[in-house]
From TrEMBL:
Residues 98-128 are annotated as: Disordered. Residues 118-128 have a biased composition (Polar residues). This is Uncharacterized protein. It comes from the Eukaryota.
């Protein structure tokens, strides 16, 4: 099957060999392994190389045409930031268990007004 597949499908077939654990893990709200029905359906569709239903026409972050590839790589839209924040929150939770919760904080996002991108951090350092 791999021999006749397109380059994109070959990459997908290689990737799915190592990314199917969510299909065999028992769903648990406590462990964070429970998926909503739509999340599970979309994950299976992506795994099969199909496009999930009800995708927006344009990216809410940058206005570009919305595709699965764009959703996974856009630095302005939601998924890259959401994945980062999920990792940040999980790391913060682990760190608060190792020390004390009051020693671990998440800096708030500061909006400087208007539709301008945030170019400074809370300490005044530049993001660029």
């Amino acid at each position: 099957m791999k021999g006749r597949a397109s380059r994109r499908d070959k990459k997908r077939l290689e990737r799915i060999q190592e990314t199917g654990a969510f299909l065999t893990v028992r769903p648990s709200r406590r462990d964070g392994t429970e998926l909503e029905r739509d999340e599970f359906r979309d994950a299976v569709l992506l795994r099969m190389g199909l496009v999930p239903k009800n995708l927006p026409k344009t990216c809410d972050g940058c206005g570009a045409t919305f595709t699965v590839e764009h959703a996974l790589t856009c630095k302005t839209g939601g998924l890259v930031v959401m994945r980062h924040d999920d990792c940040r929150d999980e790391f913060g939770d682990i760190a608060s268990k190792a020390t004390t919760p009051s020693r671990v904080t998440t800096e708030p996002l500061i909006h400087y007004g208007g539709n301008e991108p945030v170019t400074r951090q809370a300490n005044g350092a530049s993001n660029t």
